[in-house]
Write the structure tokens for this entry.
Amino acid sequence: MLSKLPLKIIVENMIQVTDTAADKIRHYIQKRGRGVGIKVGVRTTGCSGLAYTLEYVDQEQGLQHCVAHFDSAGVRVFVNPEHLAYVDGMTIDYLKKGLNEGFEFINPQEKDRCGCGESFRV
């Protein structure tokens, strides 16, 4: 059934961005003076195997390999098709904990995280 739907519909709600995270992303894009959104993915690293990546996208040209581009909380999100299975259902938030602050990836697919919190396994 999913294969008959347009790809944009299938991935529309794969990643949610909280209002707090969206505000920070827009702030950083404005501070940089350029950007159209973020690209979310994973890379192999750490003790548990995978780590999240978040990059700013300056222009949509050259992103043909990114299957998904959609808006979440007013932020354009791009995802490489090879990473869709790892980020499906994920929420990106921005948290302040004491002196630390940063983006938090909340993924219901995670089976565990390493002790330092840098990598995860699905």
Summary: The first strand starts at residue 15 and ends at 17.
